[in-house]
Amino acid sequence: MSDHQALVHNLEACKLSSNLRAATGTHGRMIKIGYGMHQTLISSLISVYISCGCSNLASQLLKEIPCWDFDLISANVIIAAFMRTGEIDIAKKVFDHMPIHDVVSWNSMIGGFVKNGRFEEALRIFQEMLSLNNEPDAFTFSSVIKGCAQLGGRDHAQWIHGLLIEKQIAINYILGSALIDMYSKCGRIETAKQIFETIQRKDVSVWNAMINGLAVHGLAFDAIALFSRMVLEKVSPDCITFVGILTACSHCGLIELGRKYFDLISSYAIQPQLEHYGAMVDLLGRAGRLDEAYAIVQEMPMEPDVVIWRAFLSACRTQKNSHMGEFAINKIETLKSGDYVLLSNIYSSANKWDSAERVRDTMKKNGVRKNSGKSWIEMAGVIHRFKAGDQSHLEREAIYKVLEGLIRRTKMEGYIPTKELVLMDVSDEEKEENLNYHSEKLALAYGILKSSPGTVIHITKNLRTCLDCHCWMKVVSKILYRVIVVRDRIRFHRFEGGVCTCGDYW
């Protein structure tokens, strides 16, 4: 065996075992016998360091190489490896240095951006790929469709689907599921249903995508009917199917049906998982049955994880139970900003300002920053983003003028700001001003400014929409005779004629 072959063999063994000591030893041997700059071996070594959890060593190694003239396969390996660890900028530099790209190179970039939550960049790379006459394949479309689903861009969704048909890409169960998920998350549940009816439905993932789509739209009985049809068509449900059904029940407060389907899990030889228990905790907690939700936590055959406790904490917020909220938060080992905010919300809604202030002080002390609420709206294929009190938009003066006019009109119709939601013990005027400029209100004002009367307005938000914005949107839909669809972190809300499809239960 030659030295080169021996090094290749050693690196493969290091990757399989994630043995950092062996990897650094092999690296030393590469340098000693003159292979320290061998491009193929370097790309393998970078991949090994990343698999060992040492992306810092991998990036350092890349910096030490004077020339990045990797062959196509080696460069693709490096891009994929850095994308897996979230080192997006390094992966992009390697990609930009490549003289040529194949479909694997483009797929690694697009898929990497999607997996790391940078959906708009994934779409931009895809558009660049097309402009350079590179042909996408089924893997390309699978990633792009997932990215579009997260953005909720309706125009982008239609464009991507059209391209898929134009390129004559066969729609297998992976692409079929992705299309159903994309249209569901873009607020086009009827289109998702049409696709479901026209594709092969032998794989459970296709049914899961449709059931989950119906669940987030609050169509619990449709989801349950689809489950029954699935059984009739002899497609066996899996863990994800039951998570979807339980989520659907949770969004609509269907407690007894939720219990029925939870009990049904074991009859399919499926062991209930943490996700199923979490859905039951959420279902009972939302319905105000905190004691029963806590009983589920106690009866679980496994140790409750952070997701379970967060579901319980969220229920405590809904029910304004500070005692149980404190208990839940003490069970969460590593607190995130959302946990602090939920507890602070509980105290504020109960006018326990000292306790709420204590929570905020703890956040500052621990260096935890509150996640900013962000909303976005797609107009003519362009996505416009807003955060609370945003002054960055080029048309901000017109947006605020529309918003302030809407606020005046909604107050005349009986809208009263929900001031107890503001997490500060300040004057009512300051609280009201804080509520007036939430991100979804700015997004809606922009949508009204830029669309024709009667057009449905679609807004996406990264957090759960607040009670005040929810009440306000209902009034706006009534006075303007407009349909407003908001997709928040939890579900879809369709406002029309002063009511919401969630029935004020979300």
Q: Unreliable stretches, pLDDT < 50, 5 or more residues?
A: 423-432
Morphology: globular
The percentage helix is: 55-70%
Overall mean confidence score, pLDDT: 88
Per DSSP E runs of 2 or more residues, the count of β-strands stands at: 6
Number of helices: 26
Structure description:
The protein has a 6-stranded mixed sheet, covered by helices on one side. 64% of the residues lie in helices and 6% in strands. The chain has helices at 3-17, 20-32, 39-51, 55-64, 72-84, 88-97, 103-115, 119-131, 138-151, 154-166, 173-185, 189-198, 204-216, 220-232, 239-252, 255-264, 274-286, 290-299, 306-319, 322-329, 337-349, 353-365, 396-412, 428-436, 439-450, 467-479, and strands spanning 374-379, 382-387, 457-461, 484-487, 492-496, 499-500. The termini are far apart. Strand 5 (492-496) and strand 6 form a beta hairpin. The longest helix has 17 residues, at 396-412. The protein is globular and about 80 Å long. The chain has 506 residues and is mainly α. One of its GO terms (molecular function) is zinc ion binding.
Topology record:
Layout: H1 3-17, H2 20-32, H3 39-51, H4 55-64, H5 72-84, H6 88-97, H7 103-115, H8 119-131, H9 138-151, H10 154-166, H11 173-185, H12 189-198, H13 204-216, H14 220-232, H15 239-252, H16 255-264, H17 274-286, H18 290-299, H19 306-319, H20 322-329, H21 337-349, H22 353-365, E1 374-379, E2 382-387, H23 396-412, H24 428-436, H25 439-450, E3 457-461, H26 467-479, E4 484-487, E5 492-496, E6 499-500
Parallel strand pairs: 3-4
Antiparallel strand pairs: 1-2, 1-3, 4-5, 5-6
Helix pairs in contact: 1-2, 1-3, 2-3, 3-4, 3-5, 5-6, 5-7, 6-7, 7-8, 7-9, 8-9, 9-10, 9-11, 11-12, 11-13, 12-13, 13-14, 13-15, 14-15, 15-16, 15-17, 16-17, 17-18, 17-19, 18-19, 19-20, 19-21, 20-21, 21-22, 23-25, 23-26
PPR repeats: 102-136, 203-237
InterPro entries: DYW_dom, E_motif, PPR_At4g14850-like_plant, PPR_rpt, TPR-like_helical_dom_sf
Pfam families: DYW_deaminase (PF14432), E_motif (PF20431), PPR (PF01535), PPR_2 (PF13041)
